[in-house]
Every structure is written in C-alpha cells, then in structure tokens.
Write a structure and sequence with these properties.
Largest sheet: 6 strands, mixed
CATH superfamily: Ribonuclease H-like superfamily/Ribonuclease H
Number of helices: 5
Helix content: 25-40%
CATH topology: Nucleotidyltransferase, domain 5
Number of strands: 6
CATH class: Alpha Beta
Distance between the termini: 35 Å
Strand content: 15-25%
Order of helices and strands: EEEHEHEHEHH
Length: 173
C-alpha cells in the first residue's frame, strides 16, 4: 500500500540567464520535523545586489554545520525525505516553480529523481487563489529558506482549514 508524506520547502538561489544556483534549502515535514542546508558550491560573487542584501546576509556563519557541498546536501535531503515507491513524497511550496527546479537539480536530470520523489511541487499560492485569496499571515522571516518553509506549512494549514469549511458549507443540508 502506497503512503504519502507531505513536506513544505523553500529554496534561496542566485538566478542567472542559464541556471539557478542553489544557495540554501529549508524543508519542514507535516509532522514538524525540519531540515536546513546551505551550499558551499553556490557562487555568491555572481549574486545580484538584491540577493546580497536580502538572502546572503541571513545565512548562518560559514562554520555552521548547515554548510555543505551539493553532493552532501543531496544525500542529506534524501535522508530527510526518504522517498520510495511505497513512501511517496508530496512537496508544497509558495511561488515554487524555481524552487522545484533548484531542488531537482540536486539529482541531475528529472529522469534521475529518486523513486517516490515527485516531478512537480504543489503550490500554496495556487491553492490560495483557488480559495478566493483569503488573508494569509505575514511572513516575518522572508528569504530565510527554513523560516519560509515553516511559513508555507502554516499557510497550507490555514488554507486547508478554509477549504474544509467551504466544503462543509457546500455540502450542508
């Protein structure tokens, strides 16, 4: 029997014309478990001023254990998510198109994704739009990948409650 585990994540990256250079990733499980890593391979010198001012300044000190190579990051992500054919992973983000690409590139081409790892990320912003754009809580830690992943989890919880209330009203006798 297949089982799905839900995770909420965010990445910070340096966007360039030919690539998305992953800086950091934060992942929060539906159960509250957390993962955070910062890439030692990201080319910070190629970051634009906005990324320097709003992302790089929030990273932990370079001697923090969160810092690792992309290769180690990939192994740690797999260890945290544990995707498999029987334990599939459901991923959620917020405006998550680039986040999904940054995450998948840890594994190489999309065909090399591990079994149970989805080829898409569900987007809480799309869910919000479909529910009429209810007011969301402020994100006071914007551009810190782990703080943003926590916020996405709280947004998903709020939106699923809104959807359940709407369904209950629709199906009320």
């Amino acid at each position: 029997m297949s089982h799905k585990r839900r995770f909420f994540y965010d990445t910070e990256f340096i966007e360039r014309p030919s690539t998305i250079d992953l800086i950091s990733i934060g992942i929060v499980g539906e159960d509250g478990s957390e993962f955070y890593a910062v890439s030692t391979d990201a080319e910070h010198s190629k970051a634009n001023q906005w990324v320097k001012d709003n992302v790089l300044m929030l990273l932990p000190p370079e001697d923090d254990s969160a810092w690792c190579s992309r290769e180690v990051m990939r192994a740690r992500v797999l260890d945290f998510l544990r995707p498999s054919k029987t334990d599939k992973v459901e991923l959620w983000g917020y405006y998550s198109a680039y986040d999904h690409v940054a995450l998948c590139w840890l594994f190489g081409p999309m065909v090399d994704l591990p079994p149970g790892m989805p080829m898409y990320t569900r987007d809480a912003k799309q869910l919000c739009d479909s529910l009429g754009n209810p007011r969301l809580p402020p994100n006071n830690g914007a551009h810190d990948a782990l703080v943003d992943a926590r916020w996405t989890r709280s947004v998903w919880q709020l939106l699923t409650a809104v959807a359940q209330r709407a369904a209950a009203v629709t199906h009320a006798p």
